[in-house]
Design goal:
The protein is 32% helix and 10% strand. A 3-stranded mixed sheet has the order 1-3-4, with no helix packed on it. Strands 2-6-5 form a 3-stranded mixed sheet, with no helix packed on it. Strand 3 and strand 4 form a beta hairpin. Helix 1 runs antiparallel to helix 2. The chain is elongated and about 75 Å long. The two termini are 19 Å apart. About 4% of the residues have low confidence.
Length: 199
């Protein structure tokens, strides 16, 4: 059962608004060349105002949308990527580390298991095991997803597919627009990210 899926309609809405803004700004430029400065300024001002209002509306929706919590046995999909937890096994051990409240427990690297961030072909899936050392008094544990940093061992994978060339391009102005203007994105600036409940 998929409990939540970030559909691409938000991307298409941001694309539509961005395309409309680009066309309007080109028209404004043409009006400048025709020496219709007042009309050109009015078109540009209206276009930029619509873009700002759009970003504010998307940000408010992101802020007010409740956080999605995925239970064990359910799946969560973002665009074409899906993840879920089949089962959880707890193995009590002597406490190894003391953590403060509001804590994070890092993933323990195990070279024997398939990396969770392996690139896959469409329709391909993997099943892997993630291991954490958590404090014995932890009662509510949640798994969050974020790409590994270089310090954590991130590298273009030796296992699985490599990303397409366009996916490694710099963020740029276009990427920044889709980041702030796509409604319904789990990684929107003011939205609480989806978490998978472990315990």
């Amino acid at each position: 059962m998929i409990v939540h899926s970030d559909v691409e309609i938000g991307f298409w809405l941001a694309l539509l608004v961005g395309f409309g803004a680009a066309v309007s700004l080109v028209i404004s430029g043409i009006l400048v060349l025709e020496r219709k400065f007042r009309t050109a300024a009015s078109v540009a001002k209206t276009t930029l105002s619509v873009m700002v209002v759009w970003v504010i509306a998307v940000s408010l929706v992101s802020l007010l949308t409740p956080q999605t919590i995925v239970r064990v046995g359910d799946n969560y999909c973002e665009e074409i990527r899906c993840i879920g937890i089949d089962k959880v096994r707890v193995e009590p051990k002597e406490p190894e580390t003391v953590y403060d409240q509001g804590r994070r427990f890092p993933l323990i690297g195990d070279p024997a298991v398939i990396p969770y961030d392996t690139y896959l072909d469409p329709g391909q899936k993997i099943q892997t095991t993630l291991t954490f050392v958590a404090a014995s008094d932890a009662r509510q544990l949640f798994l969050t997803f974020r790409p590994r940093s270089k310090a954590e061992g991130a590298k273009l994978p030796a296992v699985g597919k490599t990303p397409p060339a366009w996916a490694t391009l710099p963020f740029g102005l276009l990427g920044a627009w889709f980041y702030v203007a796509s409604p319904g994105r789990d990684d929107a600036p003011l939205h609480k990210p989806t978490v998978l409940r472990v315990l």
